[in-house]
Specification:
This protein is α+β, with helices and mostly antiparallel strands. The protein is 50% helix and 15% strand.
Length: 222
């Protein structure tokens, strides 16, 4: 029986981003309780995207771990986050960031650059440029599609699209390769033509604004 439990401890800010912090406890084979902290970045969707400390608690009961953990101050928790990040970077030995997350980040940034804060435009304000909105919509559809694919499957798809060429995240040509992948996915998605999209957007502008807000800001998929 899985006796692992996790509960939220709060949020920590690092480099302008908020990381969710969790206390995870479990019963070990020696009938004692162990515990560690797990940290989730703001754009993570699955638990395997979190980073964790080592098992830093070993007590006779879960309540004792909970009491000790909640007695730790924010500076020490921030130090544990920094240590966990350092351990991951050392273990990965220079490996590239998670491919799927990196793609979604650049697509989101480019989409927002195309249209600005268009999802917050009020009805009485000037209608934003529809061509820019349409370009943003197409990028959002690619980002949404990528988010629905398991990370390992997406890595395999990228390898096939690039025909075996290695995508060097440290190289200057990484965005060129990324745009090749984006263009391939966009070409194969059943996206509406511009004229059909404009007609639907003008009839339901609030739905499109809510979609963009959820995709870019709410931390979840629409």
């Amino acid at each position: 029986m899985d006796r692992t439990r996790r509960r939220s401890v709060g949020f920590l800010e690092r480099d302008g981003e908020e990381w969710a912090c969790y206390l995870v406890t479990f019963s070990s084979d020696d009938h004692r309780w162990r515990g560690y902290f797990s940290f989730r970045p703001p754009d993570a969707e699955e638990e395997d995207e979190e980073i964790r400390t080592a098992d830093i608690f070993l007590e006779a009961s879960e309540a004792e771990i909970d009491h000790k953990a909640r007695g730790l101050g924010r500076p020490l928790l921030s130090g544990l986050l920094a240590s966990a990040l350092h351990s991951r970077e050392r273990d990965e030995d220079g490996a590239p960031p998670r491919l799927r997350r990196w793609f979604r980040t650049i697509l989101s940034e480019n989409s927002r650059e195309l249209t600005g804060e268009w999802e917050e435009v009020e009805e009485e304000e000037k209608l934003p440029d529809l061509h820019s909105l349409y370009s943003s919509y197409r990028l959002d559809q690619v980002a949404h599609f990528i988010a629905l694919i398991r990370p390992e499957h997406f890595q395999e798809a990228v390898d096939r699209i690039l025909d075996g060429r290695s995508m060097d995240f440290a190289g200057k040509d990484r965005l060129q390769f990324a745009m090749m992948v984006v263009a391939y996915i966009e070409e194969h998605l059943p996206l509406p033509p511009y004229e059909a999209w404009v007609e639907d957007y003008l009839a339901h502008p609030e739905e499109y604004r809510l979609y963009a807000h959820t995709l870019h800001r709410a931390g979840r998929l629409p």
